[in-house]
Structure formats: structure tokens, C-alpha cells
Amino acid sequence: MEASIKGFFEKHQLAYLHKTMVVAVSTGLDSMVLLSSLLSWRQKEHFKIIVAHFNHHERAQSKEEQEFIEQFCQQQKITCFIGHLKLRDRGNFQALARKRRYAFFKQVCESTKADYLLLAHHADDNVETIMMRLLRGSNLLGYAGMEAVLPFHNSTLLRPFLEITKQALVDYAKQTAIKFFEDTSNQEDYYTRNRLRHHLLPMLQAEQPQYVEKFKAFSDTLKGAQAVISDQVKRFVREQCTVIENETSFSKTAFLSLSKYLQTEVLFHLFKALDLSKAQITSIIDGLVAPEPNWEMTLKGKLQIRREYEQIRIAPPVLKWEGQVVISRLGTTKINDKYSVNVKPGEEKNLINDQEIWYNSHKLPVLIRSRRPGDKIKLAGGTKKVSDLLIDLKVPKQKRDQILILEKDGEILAVLGVRKSIKLQEMESCDIIMEVKKHG
């Protein structure tokens, strides 16, 4: 098995001498074979091994498993980090546990400046993953299963057993008398993966004894096709997407000119960090082609995609600010996390710049507040609802929610950055400037 792991590093042109490797060890058969094999290999080569064990506290056996791996590492004189899972909400346990587990691995890798994070996923695991994604829906790369090598924050995640069958690991454990713990929950049919393992894979084995190799060939074919598609996706992102701060935007027309398949792949690429399902991507596309001029969807509370007329924008959701601030003197006043107002002396009145408000200091204080339903402003052509004004000017919905109102004695003097009232434009003896500044 040591030769297989060394061959994996050589095949992928990965350096191992004097490197630091964090090994995720559950104390199950797979991870104990991985750890034992690395320890055997280390006797011939020089590299550092660190163990990361994550205690889910889900079974009575968890305490015994933690104590075992701590003692094992102490005997082998290797560092062992222990992570703990404490969940109040037991809903969707598998997804939450996986998220916390990988966050722990990230923490260990960063604190030890590790070069690699090694996981013990094997060829049978990959077959199960492919089948689960076929049932759930995914994209081409998702259907191809797990990656053997991929970036993991400042380290690299490796799966050196991905082409080795479970049976080969079982045989090796027997031959070398490796001690391991059996997770009894793996025998239950509660989770989809277990049902596939217990019922569907034996049928595949009976029908095609070489099914693992067939799935690998299937995976390799998809990865080859994905490489071609990926070039087209990257070209669209490079040529059509504009990134300003934390917002990515692109033309609706350019996006809809792509084939349906490429639309899907572009969105999978842009939302890669969220690990969306095919159904979620399909819902996004349905929204983007809907007849309404504006549309938006928030995904997992982390990113929001919006269609604003001819532009599609992706950015973290922005909470609508609701509040008010009194401006009564010269100086800078913070309005909220996004805006502040600087009041300073001024002499020459400027009616063109909507970001600057020329005002009579004797008429202070004024109020700067958030927009409210029913707001109206008096313009040269008559009174108009602020909401209608913003729609007519095609101000994007997200920006409408951030608009600030300048008010004096219940009358709107300006929709800041958009329009000034006729009363403000005709004001005499203006000697100060109120300048809206964006920050953060």
C-alpha cells in the first residue's frame, strides 16, 4: 500500500520530501489503513505526519475512538488534533457535520502550515458519490465524482486511495493486523449513501464484476469533456463578467446567447462555493428569463443573484437600512455602515451635482432618513412619488433600498444622489455644502 501512495504522489507530480501532511483519521478501516501506510512509508522517506480526528459525539463509541487515536499518536510520536461537533439543531446532520468537519481540517492545516490534507476516500466511495449526484442532479464535473487532487485553502487536498477498491483496503488491513473501529451507523439504511451501498452496489457487482473500473472510465470521460466545456466557461467569465468590489455583473443578452447547457455551467462556476444542486441552478435560469424587468433570488443566505433590466448581478445580499439621523452642525456625521455626510462651508452654488446639497445653515437641523412607503417629492413638473421616480430612472431595486432621503419639517428636500426638490433648488442664502460620501 505504501508503494501505491508513493505512486500517487509521483503520478500527480507532487513533492513529498520534507512536506507536512495532515491526515484525516476517523479510526475507521479506510483512514487507519491510510495512516498506517504513511507511517510505513515515512520510515524510508522524510516527511511530517499530523493527525486530525473529528469527534462527532454521535455514538457512545466516539469517546473510545478518540482515546484510541490519541494513544496511537502518542506511541507513534506524532501530533494529534481533536475537533468536536456540538449541534443544537439535529436537522440535516450529515451536511452540518461535513461543514464543521472541513472547517476543522482547514483550521488544522492553517495552524500547522500543512502542505497537504489527505483523505481516505476510495474507489467504491467514488462510485457511491457519482450515483448520489446522478439522483440529486449536478453538472458534468459533479457527475464525474470526487477529485483526487484539488486546492484546499492554502493547502492541497489529496485522495491517494481514489483508484483503490475497498476490498483491497480490507485485505491490507487483515494482512497487517491494523486495528480499526467499525462505525455501526454504516450498517443502517437511514442515509442515502448507505442504501446505495447495501442494496444497489451488490446488484451492480452481480451484473458487472468490473463495475468500479467502468465507473472510473465513465468519470475520466466526463472530466475530459468538462475540460473542453471549462475553457468556454472561463472565456465567458473573462470576456463578459465585470467584478467591482464583491459584485460580479454581466449582460443578460450575452448570457442568454449561450446554449442552455453553457448557461448552466457558467452558473455552476460562479456559484461554485455554494455547492448548488441542478434544481437550484434551473430555478435561477427560470428567473433570469422571466418577463418581469427585475428579479432576484438569495441563495443559502450568502449570495444574491439579481436581474436588473439588461444586467445580471451577483453579490452578497444587502440588508435594507431603516433609520434616521439629525444633521445640525458642520462636520462629518455617519449615517450607516455605507454612507456618511460631510457638512462644510461653501460659497458657489452647484445645481448639477446630485451628490452635493447646497443649503442655508440658518435652516438647520435637517433629517436624513431611509425611504418610506408613500414618500413624495416636489419637482419642477409637479409632485411625484419617490418610488415612481426611482422606477422611471431605472434605479436597480437593491440600490433603491439604500437610497437616503433629506427631509425638513416633514417635507422631502432631496432623494440623495438622485433628485433635488424645487424648493431646495430655489433656496436662497446657501452657505454650506452637504456632501454624501460612500464608504465601506
Q: Percent range for helical residues?
A: 40-55%
* Total of DSSP H or I helical runs spanning 4+ residues: 15
Q: In what order do the strands lie side by side in the largest sheet? A: 3-2-1-4-6-5
CATH class of the largest domain: Alpha Beta
- Main sheet characteristics: 6 strands, mixed
Give the radius of gyration. 30 Å
CATH topology of the largest domain: Rossmann fold
Integer average pLDDT = 90
Number of domain modules: 3
Show unreliable segments: none
Q: What can you see in these coordinates?
A:
With 440 residues, the protein is of the alpha+beta class. It has three domains: 2-212, HUPs (Rossmann fold, 3-Layer(aba) Sandwich), CATH 3.40.50.620; 241-315, Uridine Diphospho-n-acetylenolpyruvylglucosamine Reductase, domain 3; 324-438, no CATH class. Helix content is 40%, strand content 24%. The protein contains 15 helices and 22 strands. The chain has helices at 2-11, 29-42, 62-76, 93-112, 123-136, 140-143, 166-176, 192-207, 211-240, 252-256, 260-270, 278-288, 386-392, 397-400, 422-425; strands at 20-24, 48-55, 79-84, 116-118, 149-152, 155-158, 242-244, 247-251, 294-299, 303-308, 311-315, 324-327, 331-334, 339-345, 356-359, 366-370, 376-379, 382-385, 404-408, 411-415, 419-420, 432-438. It has a six-stranded mixed beta sheet, with helices on both faces. The protein has a five-stranded antiparallel beta sheet with strand order 7-8-11-10-9. Strand 19 (404-408) and strand 20 (411-415) form a beta hairpin. Helix 1 packs across helix 2 (29-42). The longest helix has 30 residues, at 211-240. The two termini are 53 Å apart. The relative contact order is 0.08.
